[in-house]
Design a protein that fits this description.
heterotrimer, A alpha+beta (about 260), B alpha+beta (about 160), C alpha+beta (about 775), A: about 260 residues, alpha+beta, Uridine Diphospho-n-acetylenolpyruvylglucosamine Reductase, domain 2, Uridine Diphospho-n-acetylenolpyruvylglucosamine Reductase, domain 3, Enolase-like, domain 1, 3 domains, 5-stranded antiparallel beta sheet, 4-stranded antiparallel beta sheet, 10 helices, 14 strands, C: about 775 residues, Aldehyde Oxidoreductase, domain 4, Aldehyde Oxidoreductase, domain 3, 7-stranded mixed beta sheet, 5-stranded mixed beta sheet, about 25% helix, about 20% strand
Chain lengths: ~260, ~160, ~775
């Protein structure tokens, strides 16, 4: 299980990274998703551009009411409290349950989000937040709402010549309620159903249902779910037309648990 | 590609194909065969080594990503007191049989001990989830780690 | 000779001598060995389950680095015959010829300086084949008109066995009758180290040296000789440290033959290291059974009779040396288990399918048999409204009947089976569980009682007539001139701790400090012939052989010591590593030093046998030891997700005299973890085209630290009357009981809902489906 041959480049700045992208290089951050695909020869890039050493790629900045998380920030850093406040608590609780610590030490929030595996944790969680993905292309930066970033299975709003640079999230009041539930038979297993619900005081609660082999389902107003978790979960899942009764049951349970935990 | 990195405290320069992963670099080029290859897709944990001070899967780090890194493999813990205590505990608790998962297990065990000094049994088990052992049923491994944690807590009070 | 007083002999939980090198990362496995100039091999493997092979187009310019069957005609086919009447032997080519019979079958060997480049060659090969209809299921394999996998056979069966006894009267007299159809999944044994082979030709010794991760180096040597047309003296097999066996490495490999032939052809070391993708997709090769069980009982739960129709999916070929029928052909003889079954009828089939050939995985047929028998007993208990332990107590062989011969001629050596069950039940708060059930909680209590025949020898295996009939196990005991005791054994230790336990046995006999005992294994050039480590035989057979060799060596040392002490031999005793005559003594170090280096100090008429002894051993009778156990499990079912949590797990185990209780516990715990995998997690699904669907360990789930509870073990120690120290084979026991005990607990938890899970593993999807079936 050795990769096919590829060339490796480590761009020193963002322009160099974009130039490599233009030449067809495959961007890689922590490599915890791409690595297995390379070894299994499921991914056959001719060139790889390692983003890890780009300036500002990793790290968390607070600018007014916005927390900017560099795309190259590792899951482990978030688990260990790199993000301040109530938002940080919530993200840390999610990060801790991603894969295993040695994977979290390398894997990054941006790499995982951009990879857009439907079972991935950030794919299932970030769309619940009223924030933005910061994309950088030859024409400069643009911002895409987090709820609209992941478009399908391994499919995102990123254009072929763009990189994910950062995730911008709002500072959350301490009274923010949060519920998150995912189904894994063992820690680190790919989730078979993930749901979360974010209730920021004064705003409509938002919820996400994910890990269903499709783009995440985002509920911009989850008030009904929050009010009647079991009934609303059943109603929502019934609309999805899931073929596998087990996965449908897991989806209902996930939504309900997430809503109840955020009550 | 030419590659410079630090391995077990020694600066090293080697020539490698970009597709070669760190486990193969350590084992093939540097003859550090204590790092074992189990799955090459990041699940089993046998190849876990310390990279820049934190455990990482050496099968998922291809050569380029290792440039400039500081790597510590199981051979690099000879002077480490926590590792010495873990080795003693592993033997006393019969935490190894065939020995194949053991180096990766020890690297992760040491990280648990240092990072989570108050970990209880449930947390230790959760933290071990990314290291598979097919021989022992894990009880000895869990007990060895809990024993080292308890001894360190005792020494700290 | 008297037992040592050191506390390091038989019965001591001595720490393992082999631990130090593993803890330092200094174990030496096949993959750690790479002589200069080694060429790496990657194999082109069949992408389809059944096809006519039309040809391989080698990459341009690489014609000399890609080898197909026609390029290596010196390799003969692998044939693992059985003498059982009606057995059909397959011919398995090392490199496919004419037909492809399972996904992953080796077609061509691609050779390059690195594995990555060898894989590049594989990717550049073009394969031409014509697909054939696929037999992907063992029951479909038997359907009329099923495609034939070996076209000269009349049907897809390696072997059928039966016992005819008319049970038609039982319907009229039985208080309860249950019928169950049960299925166990195909598994991958998944040792963390894969297989690996390094082959070299040694021109000095004119010898092929094959370093390979095997549990049985001598058997591999014989198999290589047969298939390559070499004398056994021209082959040396080295099995270095091996990262887990479990049966996966008890086979002669097509890859070993290919590497050996290539090393001789190319004059270079040639190495192949199995990767996880190969292991999962080409070698998921065990445990797939189907049972149809009918059982009749009286109102007290006493079995009146059992009928079982069993099919084992044996895959496409008969693997060497254990053959394609090892599992199915055993089912008839082991199905009665620890019970006094009065009447019994069976029919078994070793079905040939387009899947990898099966190997005996830890527990071999016992895990499936225990699952079928124990779940059937619980079904009877539910129907009779009796506690599950009461139904078992009504049928267990009582201790006063030992040694006991059952209706199929199986002989049980010793033990108190009912007591093991009593202790296991007493360790669980059954009343508490019943109360929780009454409150609506889906929690359940499950039992399994079973015995493990181990270390069975000639009298059992000669009837099966497989290529290797185990017989007289040999060991060598020898002193080095500085007084170190060297034990050389042909079995192999790959986690079992034999470097420690055989040293304990030697210490028990000779009193030499275990730190001064070196156990040498894993090299046919250094060790006496042996059929290897499998069948829970090593501690009984090699332990007995080491004791015998040490006893004889002790006699030799006694003679020399007596001469040195100038005392009559009859006045001398060997104790604590020295020869004593009254107050005078001479240590074994001095004895060895004198014999080898200062013979002038010995009288001319001293015994000239020397201080190197090879001795053979066989227990009498050699029908095998029977360790036994009762497993008691409390499991909780999440009825919304189908998830099962093991709340507690208790094992009462009797392995006779325990040579090293710490190591025995390790074996039981590790086996139980594997059994938990069989029960709840591990499954290699194949689609209707025979494609394996779990290619990574993210799909094929192995139990981790969070899936294995803190298991409690309670030991009984009933010595076997037939073995050297009363020890019994116990290495597989842990893997036998869990599927039965866990599924019984699940079904107890679901009984109130009328649901029952029948197929393994009890995945959340299966559990939920069972609940929904009951609701429908």
């Amino acid at each position: 299980m050795k990769p096919a041959a590829f060339t490796y480049a480590r761009p020193a700045d963002w322009n160099a990274a974009l130039a490599l992208l233009g030449e067809g290089a495959r961007p890689v951050a922590g490599g915890q998703s791409l690595g297995p695909m390379l070894n299994l020869r499921l991914a056959l890039p001719e060139a790889v551009a390692d983003l890890r050493h780009l300036p500002g790629y990793a790290g968390v900045e607070l600018a007014g009411e916005v927390v900017r998380i560099g795309a190259g920030t590792t899951h482990a850093a978030i688990e260990d409290g790199a993000v301040p406040g109530r938002l940080g608590e919530i993200l840390a609780s999610v990060a801790r349950r991603i894969a295993y610590r040695p994977v979290r030490n390398r894997g990054t929030i941006g790499g995982s989000f951009a990879h857009a595996d439907p079972a991935a944790d950030w794919v299932a969680v970030l769309p619940a937040f009223p924030g933005h993905a910061v994309l950088l292309g030859p024409q400069g930066e643009r911002r895409v709402p987090l709820a609209g970033f992941v478009l399908g299975v391994f499919e995102t709003a990123l254009r072929a010549d763009e990189l994910l640079r950062a995730i911008e999230l709002p500072v959350l009041p301490q009274a923010t309620r949060w519920g998150h539930w995912k189904f894994c038979r063992k820690p680190g297993e790919f989730s078979k159903a993930t749901a979360c619900l974010l209730a920021v005081p004064g705003a409509a609660p938002r919820a996400v249902l994910a890990a269903l082999d499709a783009a995440p389902l985002v509920l911009a107003d989850a008030a009904a779910l929050r009010a009647a978790p079991a009934a609303e979960a059943a109603r929502l899942v019934a609309t999805l037309g899931l073929e596998d009764p087990w996965r449908a049951s897991l989806a209902r349970v996930a939504l309900r648990h997430a809503a109840e935990a955020a009550a | 590609m030419k590659l410079s990195l630090t391995v077990n405290g020694q600066a090293t320069t080697l020539e490698a194909e970009p597709r070669t992963h760190l486990a193969d670099l350590l084992r093939g080029e540097l003859l550090l065969t204590g790092t074992h290859i189990g799955c090459e897709h990041g699940v089993c944990g046998a190849c876990t080594v310390e990279v820049d001070g934190a455990p990482a899967r050496s099968c998922l780090l291809h050569a380029g990503a290792c440039a400039g890194a500081s790597v510590r493999s199981i051979e690099g813990f000879a002077e480490d007191p926590v590792m010495a205590a873990l080795r003693e505990g592993f033997s006393a608790e019969h935490a190894l049989q065939c020995g194949y998962c053991t180096p990766g297990m020890l690297v992760v065990a040491r990280d648990i001990v240092l990072r989570l000094p108050h970990a209880d049994e449930a947390r230790v088990r959760e933290e071990l989830a990314g290291n598979l052992c097919r021989c022992t049923g894990y009880r000895g491994i869990v007990r060895a780690i809990l024993g080292v944690l308890a001894a360190r807590r005792g020494a700290a009070t | 000779m008297t037992a040592p007083r050191s506390g390091h002999g038989v019965g001591a939980s001595l720490r393992r001598k082999e631990d130090a090198r593993f803890l330092l990362g200094r174990g030496r496995y096949v993959g750690d060995i790479r002589p200069a100039g080694t060429l790496e091999v990657a194999f082109l493997r069949s992408p389809v389950a059944h096809a006519r092979l039309l040809g391989v187009t080698k990459p341009a310019g690489a014609e000399q680095r890609v080898f197909v069957a026609a390029d290596l005609p010196e390799i003969g086919p692998i044939r693992a015959n059985s003498a059982l009447p009606g057995f059909r032997v397959s011919e398995q080519p090392a490199l496919a010829q004419g037909k492809l019979r399972h996904v992953g079958e080796v077609i061509a060997a691609c050779v390059a300086p690195s594995r990555a480049e060898a894989e590049d060659l594989v990717a550049a090969c073009e394969l031409d084949y014509a697909a054939l209809p696929v037999v992907s299921d063992m029951l479909a394999a038997r359907a009329p008109g099923a495609p034939l996998i070996h076209e000269h056979w009349p049907d897809n069966a390696f072997l059928e066995t039966r016992r005819d006894e008319d049970l038609s009267d039982l319907d009229a007299v039985a208080a309860a009758k249950v019928v169950r159809r049960l299925r166990t999944a195909r598994q991958s044994m998944a040792p963390i180290e894969g297989r690996g082979v390094l082959a070299e030709w040694d021109p000095r010794l004119e010898q092929l040296v094959v370093t390979t991760a095997t549990q049985q180096p001598h058997v591999t040597k014989t198999g290589l000789a047969e298939c390559l047309g070499l004398d056994e003296g021209q082959i040396r097999v080295v099995s270095p440290d091996v990262g887990g066996g479990f049966g996966y490495k008890a086979i002669l490999l097509a890859e070993e033959l290919a590497c050996a032939a290539l090393a001789m052809r190319l004059g270079r070391p040639v190495r192949w290291l199995e990767d996880r993708l190969e292991q999962l997709t080409a070698n998921a090769n065990c445990r797939e059974h189907h049972y149809e069980v009918t059982a009749w009982a009286d109102a007290g739960g006493k079995l009146l009779g059992v009928e079982v129709n069993a099919t084992v999916d044996a895959g496409a070929y008969s693997a060497y040396p254990f053959s394609a029928c090892l599992e199915a052909a055993q089912i008839g003889s082991i199905f009665p288990g620890p019970y006094t079954l009065p009447r019994f009828r069976f029919h078994t089939v070793s079905a040939c399918t387009n899947k990898p050939p099966i190997l005996p995985y830890r527990g071999v047929a016992r895990t499936g048999v225990c699952y079928a028998m124990e779940t059937t007993l619980d079904a009877l208990a539910r129907q009779l409204k009796l506690p599950p332990e009461q139904v078992r107590q009504a049928n267990l062989v009582p201790p006063e009947a030992m040694p006991y011969r059952n209706l199929v001629g199986k002989v049980f050596d010793s033990g108190d089976y009912p007591e093991a069950l009593r202790r296991a039940v007493a360790a669980v708060d059954v009343a508490g569980i019943r109360a929780r059930q009454a409150a609506g909680e889906a929690v359940g209590f499950g039992l399994a009682v079973f015995c493990e025949q181990g270390a069975h020898g000639t009298s059992v295996y000669h009837g099966w007539g497989i290529p290797f009939v185990p017989g007289f196990e040999q060991a060598q005991a020898r002193f080095t001139p500085d007084g170190v005791l060297e034990i050389r054994t042909g079995v192999h230790s790959h986690g079992q701790g034999l470097e420690t336990t055989l040293a304990q046995v030697a210490h028990q006999i000779l009193g030499v400090d275990p730190a001064r005992v070196r156990v040498v294994h894993g090299d046919t050039a250094l060790t006496p012939y042996s059929t290897g480590t499998w069948g829970s035989r090593a501690m009984v057979m090699a332990g007995g052989a080491v004791a015998e060799a040490c006893t004889q060596l002790g006699e030799r040392a006694l003679a020399i010591g007596a001469a040195l002490l100038q005392a009559p031999r009859a006045a001398c005793v060997l104790r604590d590593g020295a020869v004593h005559a009254g107050e005078a003594k001479v240590t074994l170090d001095q004895v060895a030093r004198t014999w080898f280096r200062s013979p002038q100090n010995l009288p001319a008429d001293v015994d000239r046998g020397g201080l190197e002894v090879t001795a053979g051993y066989r227990p009498d009778p050699d029908t095998g030891t029977h360790s036994y156990a009762a497993h008691a499990v409390v499991a909780k079912v999440d009825t919304e997700t189908g998830c099962v949590t093991l709340e507690s797990y208790v094992i009462v185990e009797d392995g006779g005299t325990l040579v090293n209780p710490m190591i025995v516990d390790g074996q039981v715990l590790g086996g139980t973890a594997q059994g938990i995998g069989t029960a709840l997690y591990e499954e290699m699904p194949f689609d209707s085209e025979g494609q394996p669907l779990a290619g990574t360990l993210a799909d094929y789930l192995l139990p981790g630290a969070t899936e294995v509870p803190d298991i409690r073990i309670d030991h009984m120690e009933t010595p076997s009357p037939w073995t050297r120290f009363g020890q019994k084979g116990i290495g597989e026991s842990g893997a036998i009981g869990p599927p039965a005990a866990i599924l019984n607990a699940i079904n107890d938890a679901l009984a109130g809902r009328g649901a029952e899970v029948l197929d393994l593993p009890a995945t959340p999807a299966r559990v939920l489906a069972a609940i929904e079936r009951a609701l429908a």
